[in-house]
Amino acid sequence: RMEMGVTKVPFSFKVKGIKENALLETYHGAYISVNYVVKVTVERGVMKRGLMKELEFIVEVPHRKKGLDVPEKVDFAISPQTIDNVKSSAVGKIPAFEIEGTLHRKNCLINMPITGEVTVKLSETDISSIDLQLVRVESVSKALGGSSGDVSKGEMAKEATEIESLQMAAGDVVRGLTIPIYLVLPRVYTCPSLKTATFQVEFELSLQVVFEDGYMVTETFPISLHRTQ
Length: 229
Known about the structure:
The chain is mainly β. Helices cover 0% and strands 45% of the residues. The strands form four sheets. Strands 7, 9, 10, 12, 13 and 14 form a six-stranded mixed beta sheet that branches. The chain has a four-stranded antiparallel beta sheet with strand order 5-6-8-11, with no helix packed on it. A two-stranded antiparallel sheet has the order 1-2. The chain starts with 26 loop residues before the first strand and ends with a strand.
């Protein structure tokens, strides 16, 4: 029983993974979410309705992993000859363009921005915009959804959704001009790349170049996110 007035009850607890599983970070996805909630209930007697309050708290789990001190740089070049899903006979009908760039690292640190650069070397058609999208790729075991999938065989249903989009350029781009990439990762909507027996969360960057005639070129770069100590 508590007296009238303000009563503070200190508490503490350890957050652990379920059974033998590792502790997962807080993550708010489209199809997968990892949430941690504190729930407090106050019983006020037979004739009074009890009080209840829930509050989510954020869990971040740093790990030590070798090799993260050395950035895995990615150089890329986009032209009509490098486009997928285009017949070789149709390549000559596409207006000539040449776009080069660099991602400073594909093994990205989650608390640091993603950086790089893009340069339009050549384009016969005016450019409308250049955008960079951060995409999450969530996979869930088909067996969890009630289908005939087998968890032990790793059969996954995969879905990709956009997290955020950065417009790097609007309008025709000066040829030879270096355009910087600087993308800050949003909290809780991203997490260290995750893979378990029943679900996994991966990330990729999608560079989209839209030309004035409506033609769009997309280049996708798989990336891995990490949180270090």
